[in-house]
Design goal:
There is one protein chain. This protein is of the alpha/beta class and about 280 residues long. About 55% of the residues lie in helices and about 10% in strands. The chain is built from 10 helices and 6 strands. The relative contact order is 0.13. The protein binds NADPH dihydro-nicotinamide-adenine-dinucleotide phosphate and 3-Dehydrosphinganine (VSD). NADPH dihydro-nicotinamide-adenine-dinucleotide phosphate binds next to α1, α4 and α6. It catalyses: sphinganine + NADP(+) = 3-oxosphinganine + NADPH + H(+).
């Protein structure tokens, strides 16, 4: 229930998937401005290099590095694991992972291809599972780490036109909450961001196929700037606080956390007993 010590970004290694565009790029800039070393992960190498140049304009010392690695985070776990290994060899263990690679395709349920459901689940959900799975062991061992999942307002509310997208973003919440319960005793903290519509290349792409109903719903709220959204996401990841729905679940989570601590202590005791036997 106690908030952790804020993560110190100066000198920290931050990996941002989807860091070559939109919200992810702005998250990378925000962390770089605060002294972090950055690994950008995305597919297109030209876009990665462009983003690297743009981020480097914001350096605050001459030691800072922006590393780019091209990989599809949605395809194969071993590829993603290798990329994380490469990043760790160059810039040290990952202090913070931001899972921002993702996309949206809007359309009525019967108009969406079945393959779109597969693609969005692979990218938005599994594309966040793989990098997280690749960093978690080291984070637990070091007792240091932050993992950020970028969901969406459409990851809290199922909305017209978002049957494929919303479900893939809802999945992140389940993943994040279950994972948080596992890793809290190791001082690793998991946050989920639920951004509204944000002015990015991805949003422009989404608008090309948006049904009228989805557009009208979207127009009831204003469009955010990616810099502003990124700032909030980074702040929430560094200074972990509790949202309203978590406060309601406080009692339950508190008692579950004590079960987990008890198991951890029991395991430690039986290991010492084994050693001394
Ligand atoms: N913009 C918005 O309105 C909102 C966006 N979000 C979420 O925020 C995240 C970022 O969105 P936004 O900034 O708009 O997106 P952009 O389309 O602008 O950027 C997406 C980034 O993800 C990378 N990416 C896409 N597919 C893959 C893949 N298979 N493997 C690795 N990298 C990949 C892209 O690079 P490349 O194509 O080269 O691989 C790019 O760097 C997404 O998860 C989105 O769902 C949430 C709420 C609102
Ligand atoms: C408690 C929850 C608050 C709910 C507020 C209701 C807002 C309704 C309008 C939301 C418009 C759709 C957002 C999708 C953003 C997105 O992820 C895509 N643009 C990605 O490209």
């Amino acid at each position: 229930l106690i908030s952790p010590k804020p993560l110190a970004l100066p000198g920290a290694h931050v990996v941002v998937t989807g860091g070559s565009s939109g919200i992810g790029k702005c998250i990378a800039i925000e962390c770089y401005k605060q002294g972090a070393f950055i690994t950008l992960v995305a597919r297109n190498e030209d876009k990665l290099l462009q983003a690297k140049k743009e981020i480097e304009k914001h350096s605050i010392n001459d030691k800072q590095v922006v590393l780019c690695i091209s990989v599809d985070v949605s395809q194969d776990y071993n590829q993603v694991e290798n990329v994380i290994k490469q990043a760790q060899e160059k810039l040290g263990p990952v202090d913070m992972l931001v899972n921002c690679a993702g996309m949206s395709v809007a359309g009525k349920f019967e108009d969406l291809e079945v393959s779109t459901f597969e693609r969005l689940m692979n990218l938005n959900y599994l594309g966040s599972v793989y990098p997280s799975r690749a960093v978690i062991t080291t984070m637990k061992e070091r007792r240091v780490g932050r993992i950020v999942f970028v969901s969406s307002q459409a990851g809290q509310l199922g909305l017209f036109g978002f049957t494929a997208y919303s479900s893939s973003k809802f999945a992140l919440r389940g993943l994040a909450e279950a994972l948080q319960m596992e890793v809290k005793p190791y001082n690793v903290y998991v946050t989920v961001a639920y951004p509204p519509d944000t002015d990015t290349p991805g949003f422009a792409e989404e608008n090309k196929t948006k049904p009228l109903e989805t557009r009208l719903i979207s127009e009831t709220t204003s469009i955010c700037k990616p810099e502003q959204v990124a700032k909030q996401i980074v702040k929430d990841a560094i200074v972990v606080t509790m949202g309203l729905f978590r406060t309601i679940a406080l009692f339950y989570l508190g008692s579950f956390d004590s079960i987990i601590r008890r198991c951890m202590m029991q395991k430690a005791r039986s290991e010492t007993a084994d050693k001394t036997a």
